Amino acid sequence: MFTEEQIQSLNKEFKDASPSEIIKKAFELNTEAVVTTNFRPYEAAILHAVSTEVKEVPVVWCDTGYNTPQTYRHAEQVIKDLSLNVFLYVPKQTSSHRDVVMGIPSVDDPKHAEFTEQVKLEPFRRAMEEHKPKVWFTNLRQGQTAFRNSIDIFSLSADGVLKVSPFYYWSDEKLDAYLEENNLPNEFKYFDPTKALANRECGLHA
């Protein structure tokens, strides 16, 4: 749908734009959109920003099944406060079952790729196949991983979906201020079972 030249032009034009301006532009380009979340820290910002522009935008929550009690309580609060249109996707096998047959493999374990496929990649593919979005809003930011440093506000997924990261150049401090200004909660007790090492990309965004 988009060429690399168009993507580069958009990034140049919107480098200093506000998240709301970026989101409005994305919806102008195509209204068939989703916003994905796992309710990790600062996710309330992207959920608020996108749902403020389009109230009923589908929110795809891919829950690995290993979230902390704090994350689940945080998710319920944000969903209620923002009246989000949530579509929940979970692995086909429960975490209790997987604990018996596989456990949580370390990143060096040969089973790690299979584990990541089961708890993250397959549910995400299922979600995207069902919704078939042309635009995918996410809260990726510069400085999180080497891969994320290589993209920009606008990028293309492997399937050609326009991926939009409205807060790409924002620091934690700016996001803290955004959350405070909009009376949004945050929660840091988050666990990602696929990233036993810091700054590791799980493959979902790559």
Briefly say what this structure is:
The chain is α/β, with parallel strands linked by helices and 206 residues long.
Overview of the structural elements:
Belongs to the PAPS reductase family. CysH subfamily. One of its GO terms (molecular function) is phosphoadenylyl-sulfate reductase (thioredoxin) activity. This is Phosphoadenosine phosphosulfate reductase family protein. This protein is an alpha/beta fold and 206 residues long. The chain has one domain: HUPs (Rossmann fold), CATH 3.40.50.620. It is 42% helix and 12% strand. A six-stranded mixed β-sheet has the order 3-2-1-4-6-5. The longest helix is centred in the middle third of the chain and has 20 residues.
Topology:
Elements: H1 4-13, H2 19-29, E1 33-37, H3 43-53, E2 58-62, H4 69-82, E3 85-89, H5 95-101, H6 112-131, E4 135-137, H7 146-149, E5 154-156, E6 162-164, H8 172-181
Parallel strand pairs: 1-2, 1-4, 2-3, 4-6
Antiparallel strand pairs: 5-6
Domain Phosphoadenosine phosphosulphate reductase: 34-185
GO cellular component, one term: cytoplasm
Organism: Seonamhaeicola marinus
